[in-house]
Design goal:
Structural class of chain B: alpha+beta
Strand content of chain A: 25-35%
Number of helices of chain A: 4
Order of helices and strands of chain B: EHEHHEEE
CATH architecture of chain B: Roll
Number of strands of chain B: 5
Oligomer: heterodimer
Strand order of the largest sheet of chain A: 1-4-6-2
Order of helices and strands of chain A: EHEEHEEEHEEH
Largest sheet of chain B: 5 strands, mixed
CATH class of chain B: Alpha Beta
Distance between the termini of chain B: 31 Å
Shape of chain B: globular
């Protein structure tokens, strides 16, 4: 399941909903991405996430379906926010539930690595001296590529 | 065709979307980019290095050789930075 939204999410509530009444689930993993301050010595005052409505959902659905083909998952969830966010705010939640922990861990790691290079989101950082588009980093692509060479 | 621009491509061009009628002969992403470059200085600056640009046709990633037709939705944007 995927969701693209402006509003914040309650991780505990989302995870409880994801596993409710499914007693085949033996392991649940989750990853939450937060807005951090990376522009030292300048402080970010806020961040705006732009996305491509329509394509974002398509890409996330696609990535989610690949995870379900590669691992035995009982349930999965991706929530990605857009719009204006402050330091420390939650940006993204990825959660995977499976009978066993290995599948849940691997699928969760795969999903966050892949969405970072495939889902059409762009971060604009606002600082005291103006705003700046965040540049893609090569390490993110390497992290995603790792999953295709296995 | 409908053209969409995101992130710095959008802010540099000053437009988020536009409908264009392209001359015959513009039949793939590469020829479209070359045509766009000639539309003005801001287009030239945004598109002269295609390695900085990602392209989606009808919301799927494509490469520069991908064929395009009049009814397509074509988006240009920098490498993504979500997550």
């Amino acid at each position: 399941m995927i969701r693209v939204q402006q509003e914040d999410f309650d991780m505990g509530m989302e995870l409880a909903k994801l596993t409710k009444n499914n007693y085949k689930i033996g392991g649940l993993t989750s990853f939450v991405g937060l807005v951090r301050d990376i522009t030292a010595p300048e402080k970010i005052s806020s961040m705006t996430l732009e996305h491509y409505p329509g394509m974002t959902e398509k890409q996330l659905e696609h990535i989610d379906s690949i995870a379900h083909q590669r691992w035995h998952l009982e349930a999965s969830l991706i929530i990605h926010r857009y719009g204006k966010l402050d330091l420390g705010d939650q940006i993204v939640l990825v959660a995977c539930a499976s009978a066993h922990r290995e599948e849940a861990f691997e699928a969760c790691h795969f999903l966050i690595d892949w969405l970072k290079t495939k889902a059409p989101f762009w971060k604009l950082e606002e600082t005291a001296s103006g705003s700046k588009w965040v540049e893609a980093i090569h390490a993110d692509k390497d992290a995603a590529d790792r999953w295709s060479s296995e | 065709m409908k053209l969409l621009y995101f992130a710095w491509v959008r802010t540099n061009l000053g437009v988020s979307e536009e409908s264009v009628d392209v001359p015959s002969g513009i039949n793939d992403v590469r020829t479209l980019l070359n045509w766009l470059i000639n539309r003005g200085e801001s287009y030239k600056a945004a598109f002269s290095d295609p390695s900085l640009i990602r392209v989606a046709v009808n919301q799927e990633y494509v490469d520069l050789d991908h064929a395009i037709t009049a009814g397509d939705e074509i988006a240009f944007f920098p490498p993504v930075t979500g997550g």
